[in-house]
Amino acid sequence: MITTTQNPAEPAIDVVVHRFVSEEQEPRPRRRRIAALALAAGGATLVSAGAFSSWDATANVTSGTLSAGTGSAQLLDANGGIFTTGVSNLLPADWFYRYVDVQNDGSQASNFTGTVTVTGDLAGQLAVEATSCSVAWTTVAGVSTCTGTTKPLAGPATPAAGVPVAVNHGSIGSGAANAQHVRYMFTFSSGAPATLKGKTGSIAIGVTGTVVGGTDRTAG
Known about the structure:
Elements: H1 28-48, E1 73-77, E2 95-104, E3 110-120, E4 126-133, E5 138-140, E6 143-145, E7 150-157, E8 165-172, E9 180-188, E10 201-210
Antiparallel strand pairs: 1-2, 2-9, 3-8, 3-10, 4-7, 4-9, 5-6
């Protein structure tokens, strides 16, 4: 109870008394609602800060087969002759021909070099000349003919004992269709001494193909 005293000479003053209720005096149902709201707010905070699952996507691709190039060559008898056929009764200044197709069996064009070696007593007495033809050589009545284009590859030069004559075959494409048609002409020295009567010897030829890398193979 609050008592006010009013002086009759003064104007009247209205006094309003507010009643404050302490937390301890606040009704329980309201406190429960506040607590529930606080819990709900805290739960929302936990959900927003929690971890979410993630979905991954992957992709892979594998190249086609990768293969290294190959290198191989053959020396094939050509123009109806056989390289290994022997020759008898050679006399000074006699000559004979041998025909060989140099075939590149590798996977791509290669640069070829060759050698001609003479062994035995006739070493240093047989000169060699190598010529290629753009088409196969033909022989009619003992005369060999190139109906295409000829290209000198070696000689005339005479292989000495242990010293072969080099043959520059150049670039040869891969496959039988690109084979190089070579004619070897061997000539017995016109100055061969009489001491070579009845002596023997043999001839060997060889080729080596070289292919160089450093090419962009992006297209395959």
